[in-house]
Amino acid sequence: MKLIMRADDLGISEGVNCGICKAIKDGVITSVGLMPNMEHALDGYEMIKDCNVSVGQHTNICLGKPLCSPEEIPSLVDENGEFYSSKVINKRKEDTINVEECEKEIEAQLNHFIEITGFKPQYFEGHAVFSFNYIKALENVAKRHGLFFVNPMDPQWVSENHIHGLGMIHFDERELYDPKRYMEDNLGMLKDNECCIAIFHPGYLDQYILTNSSYTLIRPMECDFLCSDWLKDWIKQNDIQLVTL
Fold first, then answer.
1. Statement: the pTM of the whole predicted model exceeds 0.85
2. What is the Cα–Cα distance from 96 to 231, expressed in whole angstroms?
3. Among 62, 4, 21, 1, which residue's Cα sits nearest to residue 223?
């Protein structure tokens, strides 16, 4: 059984960077998604660049400022020149994202990813937005640059790449869940498939996250779990091989 343990949101804030770094060095994370447009992207990469993990582009069009000028991508930004939030985008009845404009911003983030890291992303995917046009733009850019596009929510992608996403997380009233039970509940899927991917958001809380993210208490909880002896023992007991993307 092979399992990819992915941490998203590197660069989103200083606190998250610290939590992801700990989840790699003291935990079981094998792959990390970098958000190239965020202020702390370079700092985050510097913290984990010598670790044995794959680093992908966690493309972001719903938080902070774009790398393109707002005039180039009017369908992606509000009157202040900042991205619309994922909550706003995902509630739209009509997909108003312009594919060509979206590709411009994705390309700009790809170029900045390469400037930060010195290499192309080892995988390529998107953050928090479920727009068809956004996914299409990601696929177009990935194909143009020969990048490994990752979308475990798409059955066709799963069939072609033989990587299955673990089941959906069900949150309680505090927006938390039991990570031990989550892993136990997905053991059957791990046994039935060649390779699976589990996606986490480890991090420590800072004011930026408290103000701008719906994922708050879950971040330090997952960080603690990913470094726990319970998880490390569970992986060994079930003969699970941790792999990178």
1. yes
2. 42
3. 21
